[in-house]
């Protein structure tokens, strides 16, 4: 598989799954724009990529989203592939006093940013007949834990956005797909406040028991699926939702 001369934007590339995706695309010859808020982490990921364009940006900020597209086109001349990966979760009961505040934050980060960045990048991706991959979650397909209503809803909506835009952009030769991971070992659960740093390993050991295969994935396993879907090998695939969850959804 080669992505020589392809230009790829990866949001949330400063950590976890997005970092693995950016490094893998770069290793396969792509020119990558890596996006995140944490400049220090972004610098570390940049060291593992070949001449990346680094953009410190908050995906909930419209001007930052415009900067991501404009600077990529200015620097690399085009956009072939967009990976909408930046995401977060906050726990809340629907009965909590701040439930709507939590909902708005999660929806803005996970869903609105994906919709907005796709809106801005699509005209460029039509020119290159490229493709878009949204990093969703199995939480968009089933209710798997308590107090995740905002996250679950954002990811379910993302999946239907994927299908809707795949339908619209197919006639322009652009494919749009979703990758829905199950548990992947990243900073996510720590960032969600589900585990302190020293509890992360034990938490993942526990989560592994909830999957049919008895394991959690490394971020590079998701990157492998993403690069396959972005490649010409997947030329027949659009509007599809790909689960990679170690059998979490089929565990009995
Ligand atoms: P991490 O917490 O390790 O990484 C999240 C990334 O998103 C970081 O690079 C972070 O960058 C970025 N991000 C978050 N908010 C913003 C923002 N407002 N603006 C810009 N960047 C932002 O988690 P993962 O790598 O695990 O998560 C990546 C994606 O995978 C998410 O969409 C998540 O929902 C999904 N996923 C993860 C699973 C898992 O088990 N890990 C399972 C299923 C789905 P920074 O902090 O620098 O801004």
From TrEMBL:
Keyword Iron in annotation: no
GO molecular function: oxidoreductase activity
SUPFAM superfamilies, sorted: NAD(P)-binding Rossmann-fold domains
One Pfam family linked to the record: adh_short_C2
Keywords of the record: Oxidoreductase
Keyword hit for Transmembrane: no
Superkingdom to which the source organism belongs: Eukaryota
InterPro entries hit by this protein: NAD(P)-bd_dom_sf, Sc_DH/Rdtase_CS, SDR_fam
Matches recorded under NCBIfam families: PRK07231.1
Protein name: Uncharacterized protein LOC113492068
Gene (UniProt): LOC113492068
